[in-house]
User: What shape does this take?
Amino acid sequence: MMQIKLLLILLAALAMTACSTTKPGEKEQSAAPIVDAIAGPSGKSASAPPATGGGYLPGDGPGTDAPNLDNIPDAVPKAEPLHRYANRPYTALGKTYTPLQTTGNYKERGIASWYGKKFNGQRTSIGETYDMYGMTAAHPTLPIPSYARVTNVANGKSVIVRINDRGPFLHERIMDLSYAAAYKLGFVNTGSAEVEVESIATGANAPVTNPVETAAVNIEPITVAPIAPVATAIPVDTVGSSKGKIFLQLGAFKSAQGAESFLAKMNAELGDNGKELKLYEKNGLTRVHLGPYANESEARDAASKLASKLGFKPFVSLH
Assistant: This one.
């Protein structure tokens, strides 16, 4: 009996050896490698992002018409009046933010991310068009517009950016940088990095309630061909327009432009989930709503599922 067992063991070993032996002229084949096929700014394939998150979001990353990013200069700080509406307190994802009213008195370390072609061409919180190749950034509370020096803690690289948008609102990050700024700081392929953000004083501390006004000038109208499509306004529902429907509220803004910018960010974060993100105006606030839902029970279930992704639980809103 013992001899039979030894014989069976010997036969199994020989079989395993035969399976692992390659034929003459053939190379031994290993497991297929996992490759991130998204090209970086140099044209070479970017390394796969770490398990903790990072790299390019689906559909994001550099465009095919990217300029030479190394030649893009830093933003040049200059005195600018603060935006009248974009520096008021606002609520996003269940959290209230109170923007600073002066420059030069903010310094913080935290995690920064970047946003690319998914938002390229979208309107920022002050109505400007986002350019992923410009040296700009979004911040929850720094005055806008204003300027900040951003330093990558890991490699010491530093840039100066112009703050012209609000965000980020997810994952406890303190700043969203443009693609160009993140490239110059050396973290486009990892998606995020620890940075130090320091506000730059420029004397642009005009009260937000007193924007600069210019005298009216009579100008003869002329006809010109448009150089770019004009962005159409996002439709806003008002009280009574969708009466009886049930939504989830994600944020509320005094500035319609801030709400539009936030809606674009939520579209990118949530993707296609079968529901529509829309703006709803009530009591002087422009709200970002998700829905509609068939009933309150369905809306509450959806809110519970979104809580882990958004970091807070949206509340049910009946129009």
User: Anything to note?
Assistant: The first helix runs from residue 2 to 20.
